[in-house]
Amino acid sequence: MSIYECVRTFGKTNQMRKISIALFLIGGLLSAGTRSSAQTKTGCISFNELLTAMPEFKLADTLLARYKDTLEERFNAYKTEYDEQANLLSSRDTARFSSSQLIIKRQSLAEVLARLQGFNQEATALLEQKKQLLLFPIQKKASDAIQAVSKEYGYAFVLEKDVLHVYPSSEDILPLVKKRLGLR
What we know:
Protein Binding, DinI Protein, Chain A, mainly alpha, three-stranded parallel β-sheet
């Protein structure tokens, strides 16, 4: 065998070795990918159910209800004032008022109506702001617990049951998260 043939054979053998190694690595990666996707765990949870089970949520809900009642009382006071003035201006008693007094009363009624409408918008914004202030820490605590449980038990995905109509078969991790939070 000549040197040329030896080099050529060595080149082919070396090339074959590289191809064999590449195929072996590709096969290993594919089987690892298949194995890891087979081991991917999917869980599901009802976030709303978790929140309502938390005592902090119940307290926040009570505080929100009280705050809403306070805002409604203020709204009703404005509405009562408006209704009284509107009834006065639509009754037959307006004959006892001079035309300048009627103008002033109508302007006053328009101001009360503007305050009533403005307060309605303001109350909606205040209630939403209070809701965010009270619920954000509770939602974060619940979300952190879900993250911790999914990491601890090896869940790659945790789906929200209340949002999805169709989802792959999965385990409900609500009992695990409740246990982590010390809930029943």
